[in-house]
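pipeline: protein-struct stage 2 | run 1193 | ComF family protein
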Amino acid sequence: MPRFVKRIWPPSAWRIMCLGYQLGTSWLAGSLPNRCLLCHQSIPIPETGICIVCLQSGLYHGPICLGCGKSMQIEVDYCGECQKRQPRKVVAPCSYHQGLGAWVGAIKYQGQLAALPVLCRALVARIKLLELQGLITLPQAIVPVPLHPKRLQQRGFNQAWLIAHELSQLLQLPLVSEGLTRQQDTRPQAGLSGAQRRRNLHDAFMLADDFAFQRIALVDDVVTTGTTVSEIARLFEARYVHVQVWCLARAEAPGLLDDVDAV
């Protein structure tokens, strides 16, 4: 709105106009079809993005190793192989390969944010369940994986920050986006081998000296090979900061989600 409009309108009229604008946009949003992105069936307001049926069909339905993402028969933190090396814990509500991954990818590549709130709530439900079972401990703060300023300007948003902000609101945990920066504008990780990913991200991030927390959750949209979060986590762990990883979906290695009863 041009500045001169505010100068010639009295304050009471300005407030009425703003209220009318808010009511109008709310009415318009409520009058538009509210349909599931997957099955296109109507979703009762205020829910948006993905209906409960499609959401439940895409979520994990059994115990998952927090190290590698393998299906397990009992709810423990690690499978037998991961018990030996105790890797960093990765918490996700679903597999990237089982129905919901396309909409996680659409957040970053298409700016399609309709599914973000419902996927964040699914992640929060998973976090609370694992905490109740004693498999994880809630962090003191939530830290999003940063974008390089040039990439942020090109894309217009950082999907990891949007997810972290939603989780911060839902869990009432502080969101800390200062202190961790991306100092190199690296090439995209998609399509690179594991070795290429590691070389691509070497020394790409920097952590400020005055970081004040001892337990954090590092947030990203998807974890595939884990190269990005591992590169960042090493910076924190060198300062004796405990790191767990939260994401909307995990792209685990092929075969790890096979039905354990069929093996």
